[in-house]
TrEMBL record:
Protein species of origin: Paenibacillus albidus
Alphabetically ordered keywords of this record: DNA-binding, Phosphoprotein, Transcription, Transcription regulation
Protein name, as recorded: Response regulator
Swiss-Prot/TrEMBL GO biological process terms: phosphorelay signal transduction system
Record bears the keyword Transcription regulation: yes
Lineage: Bacteria, Bacillati, Bacillota, Bacilli, Bacillales
Length: 540
């Protein structure tokens, strides 16, 4: 059985002794070569070559019926990679010239030695192996190219919507990338998955990719039902759709259908910006920029809508009105850590931006909001400690990732709360002083129904900040501390002989059984058992 890796050779000569000598006396197998077949003329040679499809043919150039040249012409049309080595006499010079033109690998002039033949064949083998390796490498590259085609198509489209292409090369490029579209008249749409980062933050990577694939597939199938087009990923949560106009539906209706189908079949929502129609691929960048401009309005509305670009402006956007007097009032309030008043000023500033009957420019709204946040940041960092400054700077940087105006406003409100808390601590010296003041307040109000809000109010802190501060300083929650103080006071009162009901009321517990249960949980004994254990029996 012939090895698939072995080099196969056929030997053809009209002199039987030559065929016998060449096929049997040379160490072919030692060099990884096998003799697949032999023939005594060109006609038989054609048959065995077609039958065995060798890599090499060692043949006389002049033979009866079909000579070596005729055989070469026929075979190289069928197997162009085959190597032919001719055995040629001195009188065959014209034949040899023709063979060179046809692409013969080598000539061995008669008379020849076995070593000459073997050397020529081994040289041909070396070339064949090199060509095999090159062919295998090329096949591998072609396979990788096919596998990479979706990615390459996406990269090509990314470049196309930014820079266009030479019109004369467009057809070749689209054929290569498998883009089936009309070569003129386009719309560009940009679809963005709403709040994608927040909705997928806790999901594993495979689920996130599945969601992205599903949305892209829904968009592609939707537009394919009405027109030619292609959908490709632009970034983590955005897809770009390049489409030809539909005969059945205008572009805005098609965008709305895409939005509906994504919501219906993937349980995600998308916002879609629609650019204007352009004639040529060189103008795609214009439509793409318009689509992005229209999509920016999702920042104000919260998404799940279609936004069409209108000539002459960003959906008739207006510059938001900005009151620097109100900004100064806001900063004064923050410097004094007056959070309620500061929040009023914030809402007044934002309300003024949105009050106009013309929708404000979303880009300017974002820009002005971030500038306002930077002004607030400067106020807080004047008195904040280094760790506090680092925390505030992190929150400030995170604001750039806000997906909507509502989210950005929430982040700025939270920023103000945190900064005011820091300033409040500075106003009351340090955390321990504040906690000691809170403890004093608790000890003098044990008979009342104390809450976190009550205690926080007593030291002028927000409830959440006070709660965290108290636990950090004392090592237990406020509720645990209050119960502990009450139970310690209760033990004193029990030993002093006060009635259990009166003790419960004096410590803010109207329900005696509940008080008794807490006392037992704290001391391991009921009030009565506790008194019995620590007081001496009456003298008889």
């Amino acid at each position: 059985m012939i090895s698939e890796q072995a080099i196969k050779i056929c030997i053809i000569d009209d002199i039987p002794a030559v065929v016998r000598g060449l096929s049997m006396r040379l160490p072919w197998e030692q060099h990884g070569i096998v003799v697949a077949g032999t023939a005594s003329n060109g006609e038989e040679g054609l048959e065995i070559i077609r039958q065995h499809q060798p890599d090499l043919v060692l043949t006389d150039i002049r033979m009866p019926f079909v000579d070596g040249l005729e055989m070469m012409r026929a075979i190289l049309e069928e197997q162009p990679g085959m190597k032919l080595i001719f055995l040629s006499g001195y009188t065959d010079f014209a034949y040899a010239q023709e063979a060179v033109k046809l692409g013969a690998f080598d000539f061995i002039v008669k008379p020849f030695t076995p070593d000459q033949v073997l050397a020529s064949v081994l040289k041909a083998k070396e070339v064949l192996i090199r060509e095999r390796c090159q062919a295998e490498y090329t096949r591998g590259m072609e396979q990788k190219l096919r596998e990479s085609l979706p990615f390459l198509r996406q990269e090509y489209m990314r470049l196309l919507i930014r820079y266009g292409t030479q019109q004369q090369k467009q057809g070749q490029q689209w054929d290569f990338f498998g883009i089936e579209m009309e070569s003129r008249n386009f719309y560009v749409l940009v679809a963005e998955m709403d709040f994608f980062a927040e909705r997928t933050a806790e999901l594993p990577v495979n689920e996130v990719e599945l969601i992205r694939f599903a949305v892209q597939n829904i968009l592609q199938e939707t537009i394919s039902g009405y027109t030619h087009g292609i959908v490709f990923r632009e970034n983590v949560n955005q897809f770009v759709l390049v489409i030809n106009p539909s005969k059945d539906m205008d572009a805005e209706q098609l965008a709305e259908r895409c939005r509906e189908n994504v919501c219906k079949y993937s349980y995600q929502s998308v916002s879609i910006g629609l650019g204007g129609e352009v004639k040529e691929t060189a103008q795609l960048a214009v439509s793409y920029a318009q689509a992005l401009s229209a999509l920016a309005h999702t920042f104000l509305t919260g998404g799940n809508s279609v936004y069409r670009y209108e000539e002459g402006g960003h959906l008739d956007s207006a510059m938001p009105r900005y009151s620097y007097e109100k900004e100064k009032e806001l900063l004064y309030c923050l410097r004094s850590a007056n959070l309620p008043k500061a929040e009023e000023q914030l809402e007044s500033i934002w309300g003024e931006w949105l009050a106009s009957h013309v929708r404000p420019d979303p880009v300017m709204v974002r820009t002005l909001s971030l500038e306002l946040a930077h002004s607030i940041h400067r106020v807080f960092t004047e008195k904040a400690s280094d760790p506090e400054v680092q925390e505030l700077e992190k929150k400030l940087a995170d604001m750039n990732h806000a997906a909507s105006f509502e989210e950005l406003r929430g982040r700025i409100r939270d920023f103000c709360r945190q900064g005011c808390n820091y300033l409040q601590i500075r106003q009351f010296s340090d955390a321990r002083v504040l906690v000691e003041r809170a403890i004093t307040h608790i000890n003098s109000h044990l008979h009342e129904n104390l809450s976190v809000a009550d205690c926080a109010r007593a030291v002028h802190l927000s409830p959440s900040y006070f709660s965290n501060l108290f636990k950090k300083e004392v090592g237990m929650t406020l509720a645990q501390y209050i119960i502990g103080r009450r139970m310690e006071k209760a033990k004193e009162l029990v030993l002093e002989g006060m009635q259990v009901q009166d003790i419960a009321v004096s410590l803010g517990y109207e329900d005696r059984p509940y008080f008794t249960e807490l006392f037992k949980k704290y001391t391991g004994m009921t009030p009565t058992d506790f008194r019995s254990k620590y007081t001496s029996p009456p003298q008889g």
